[in-house]
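Work Package 3 committed the consortium to producing structural models of liganded targets before the mid-term review. Because experimental data for this complex are still outstanding, the team generated a predictive model from sequence and the ligand definition alone, so that downstream docking and mutagenesis planning could proceed in parallel. The input record is reproduced below exactly as it was submitted to the modelling pipeline, together with the SMILES string for pyridoxal-5'-phosphate.
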Amino acid sequence: MRLRLHMNESPYPPPPLVSELVSRYAGLLNLYEVEELEEQLLDELSAYAGVERENLDLYAGSSEALLVMLALAKALGLEVVVAHPTFFLVYELARSLGVRLVPVRLRGPEFSLEGEELLKAAGGRLVYLANPNNPTGNIVLRDGDLLARLAKRARMVFLDEAYYEFSGVTFKDAAVELGNVVVLRSLSKAFCLAGARIGYTISSVRAKELLARLRPGYEVSLLSQAAALGALRSMDYVRSVVRRIVEVREWLRKELLKLGAPTPESSTNFVLARLEQPCDAVSRALEEEGILVTCLGRWFEELSHHVRVTVGRREDMEAFLRALEAALRKA
Ligand SMILES: Cc1ncc(COP(=O)(O)O)c(C=O)c1O
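The resulting structure, written out as tokens with the ligand in place, is given here.
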């Protein structure tokens, strides 16, 4: 199997309880919903996230929530302000739906977001910030006062916290209190459930209901719900996965620096490495060795020398570094 370092998946399998619960609920797949399962999941998610059940909604991955955000922009005829560069899917969906994005450029080697520039752009629009951001890996918003001012100016603010378990930074309380702020979370990363397609939002009830009108319903399959319940009941496992990934990430950053490929600080399960040469030839050479990374030059002109690399197991990253060293010599 190829070494998949291009989609920010977890290198670890889901916790064992996941398959046990998935098998238990498989026999009920003749039904659209199993109330008792959803109730338990929302209860446990509410305890985990530290918000009331009414402030939660389940989604088929945070990607579904992004689609709904852009469908809302389309329905209301609004533009969407984004920190640029950000998650590629937002550009793709916006293009397909004919929604105009208004980029606020991240600045300098640390990819910082200028608060005043963001506020200026936000008036009457939707705002999307991935926090921490993908592909840069950093926290772009830390200041709760800035968020409060942003929420006053913008129609709605979407904060994508897909990597929350790695960053520890959240605006979930603001999402509940401010009314027009929606936090997006994913179980794809720290919870090792990318293939189960499950995530959730934290928001006011009003925002949740507004978004729900754009959804067909029952998108989150019973099996995904069962998987999520199994993962939430395995928090020791999840925490140890996060701990291991963070440890390997920091070691990897040092090793990349030795190879002349510096990385800005990351609050995620991936790093953004700047190479001396354009990323194309390097990522192709890695692919020939069965190692997949993301060459960002394909997406963003300003990141033509950057690769995004998911942090895997230590031994996988050793293999990656060996292949990278050879690829850099060749390119
Ligand atoms: C910032 C960000 N948001 C959302 C997603 C998608 O997550 P999900 O698997 O929950 O759809 C990703 C996945 O890489 C991401 O990086």
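Reviewers should note the following from the model. The radius of gyration is 20 Å. These observations will guide the Year 2 experiments.
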